[in-house]
Amino acid sequence: MSVYKPAKSRFYQYDFQYKGKRYTGSTSVATMRKAEEVERKVRADVALGLYDDQAGMTLDEAAGQWWEEVGKHLRTARDVERRLEILLRLMGPETRLVDITTRKVSTAIEKRRSETFQKAPDRPGKPAKRYPIKNATVNGDIIGMLRRILRRAETIWEVKPIPKISWRALTLKEPEPEVRLYTEAQQQAWLDQCDPVTRTALSLLLTYGLRLGELFFPPSAFDPSGPRLVINKRKRGALLLPLRQDHADDIAARVAVAINEGLETVWFEELVIPAAGKRERRVMYIPLTYGGIQARMRTAAKRAGLNMPRLIHGTRHHAGTMMLAKSGNLKLAQQLLGHADIKSTMRYAHAMDGALRNVLENLDPVRKSPDSPEPVVRRRSRSIKS
After folding, report:
1. Does the residue 178 lie in any domain?
2. Residue 270 to residues 12, 200, 257, 260, 267: CA-CA distances in angstroms?
3. Which ranges carry the Tyr recombinase domain (predicted)?
4. Which of the four, 3, 126, 237, 385, has the lowest number of CB atoms within 10 Å?
C-alpha cells in the first residue's frame, strides 16, 4: 500500500498512480491500518471514475448549468428558479451528484414536508395563517426538479456513475384530481345571489374556466375584432380565448369605462352621488380587488346553499367538464383551459362516459339473416381403444 506519514503531520497520506494519472491526498486518519483502508476506498472510487473532473460536479454547479441550458428558456422559468433554490437549500449546494442517494433524497423530502407556508389574509386586519405543504408540491420541488438535473447530467454531460434512485418509492401519494360539476339549479341559485358585477364575473368563470386571478385582465386584453380575450397563462404563454357575444358586449362596455377612467382592470363598481344644492350629480368608479370579488362570490354561494370546498376553483373544473361533455373533444377542452399538457385535461374524460354510453346503446347488434344457414360445428372424433 502506498501510504506514508509526513514528518510534520499526524495524518497519513496516500500516493498512487492509476492509468498514468497520479492521485495524492490526506487520509485524515492517524493510524497505518485505517490509512490503508482509506487508500483502498480511494483506489476503488478512482477505478469507478468518481475522481474524474465531471464526477466532482456539485449540485450547485449542475443546477446552474441546467438553468442556463434549459430552465431559463421555459415558460415556467420563474417557478423553476424558485424550485431550484428550494432543492439546493434542502440537499446542500456542495453535495456531489455521484453522492446523491435514495436516502439523501428521502431526507430532503421529509424536511420539505415539515415546512409550512403563509397565505395573505382575505381581508385587512385578519391574521395570516400558515398551511402545510401539499404532497404534489413536495414531489415537484424535490423529485421532479432533481430527476431532470440528474437525467441531463447522465445523458448530456456524461457524469458517471449517477446512483440509481428509487423514485417510485420516494414519490408521495397525491389525492385524486378533483372533478366538479354544478347543476343548472345550483348555477342559477348562485348567480341569483350575486350583485350585477359579481354575476358577470361568475358567469365568465363558469363558462371559460378561468382562474380567479386570470379574471383580472387589463382593458388592453380585450380584442373586439374576435371578439376574444388575450389571457396570459402561467405555463403556456398567451391564450386567445374566443368570447360569446353576450359576454363580449358586457366586457366591451366595461373596457370603455376602464380606459376612460384609467383603471387597471375591468372590474369596478359604479357609485352615483346624486345632485344636492349646488353640487352636481357625480359618478365614481370604485375598483374591485381580487379579495373583494372572492368574498362576494363566497357569500353568494353560502346564501345559495352551496357549501362544498373550493367553490370558486370548482368553476374551472365545471367549465372543462361541460366543454368535454358537449364536444367530446379533448383538444377543445385543453384549449379552453390553457393546459400545456393534454394529460392535465384527461381528468375530465369521465364527462365522455355518458355520450359514449348513449352511442353504444343505440348501436344495433349484428343480427342473423333469416336465410342464413346454420353454422357447421365440426368435432374431433376420439379413437377408442378396445
Report:
1. no
2. 83, 14, 10, 14, 10
3. 177-361
4. 385
